[in-house]
Structure to design on (267 residues):
């Protein structure tokens, strides 16, 4: 395996900051080495500097996306930070008599577990009220997995037993030890690539947005820009959930905290 020099690592720190707004700590040097070494082998390159030059040439946009995919961290599981889903349930139940669709955005959906957890709550609570969920991520690789909706049973250990029975299919044969999210849910969850560090595409307005455990990778200025963009998509009276270890202190004052890590956009 090629070793990455400090100078080479600095170039990739700038690369992922420019591409995704992520501030990569010096302690991530081994992660960069491990995740990108195979790309050097595939392209028959003998240094990380040569690989960086390939990315910077402008001739390999697919490889640039591959590098972004490999360098963005994607750790998630079903019903992570359960209090947000409990809060969501109360809001959904209060809205289920209205005629317009209830829309939720999983703004850093990774491999889809968060978006499908939302879908289980909505399917359980909404009865005849229409609803839809959008999941977005910068990584095309994890979005492909999200669309498949096929997960190891271990990833589903936090799914409530009733939801597991109603909304998931247990794999057999070659799919032993895996679960598939039911088609009835998959049909109401869409996924698309969105870079939160740039001007957002037209996504519409949402009743609730989750942007959880992402800001820890941004510096303060990037946090302010990303949060402002995301909040602009929330309907007046809608809600914004961030990770329990995160805060909007000195980041954004346009929403009001209603519970730790849960904010409301004023009417």
């Amino acid at each position: 395996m090629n070793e990455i020099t400090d100078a080479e690592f600095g170039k990739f720190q700038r690369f992922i900051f420019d591409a995704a707004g992520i501030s990569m700590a010096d302690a991530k040097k081994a992660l960069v080495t491990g995740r990108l070494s195979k790309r050097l082998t595939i392209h028959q390159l003998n240094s990380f500097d040569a690989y960086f030059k390939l990315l910077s040439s402008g001739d390999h946009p697919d490889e640039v996306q591959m590098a972004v995919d490999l360098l963005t961290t994607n750790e998630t599981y079903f019903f992570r930070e359960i209090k947000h889903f409990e809060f969501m349930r109360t809001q959904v139940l209060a809205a289920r008599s209205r005629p317009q669709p209830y829309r939720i955005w999983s703004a850093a959906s990774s491999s889809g577990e968060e978006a499908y957890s939302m879908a289980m709550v909505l399917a359980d609570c909404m009865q005849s009220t229409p609803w839809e969920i959008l999941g977005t991520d910068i990584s095309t690789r994890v979005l492909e997995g999200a669309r498949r909706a096929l997960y190891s049973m271990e990833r589903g250990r936090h799914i409530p037993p009733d939801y597991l029975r109603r909304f998931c299919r247990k794999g057999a044969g070659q799919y032993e030890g895996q679960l598939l999210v039911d088609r009835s849910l998959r049909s109401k969850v869409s996924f698309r690539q969105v870079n939160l560090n740039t001007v957002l595409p037209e996504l519409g307005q949402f009743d609730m947005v989750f942007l959880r455990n992402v800001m820890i990778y941004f510096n303060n200025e990037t946090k302010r820009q990303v949060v402002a963009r995301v909040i602009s998509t929330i309907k007046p009276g809608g809600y914004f959930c961030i990770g329990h270890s995160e805060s909007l202190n000195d980041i954004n004052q346009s929403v009001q905290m209603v519970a730790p890590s849960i904010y409301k956009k004023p009417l």
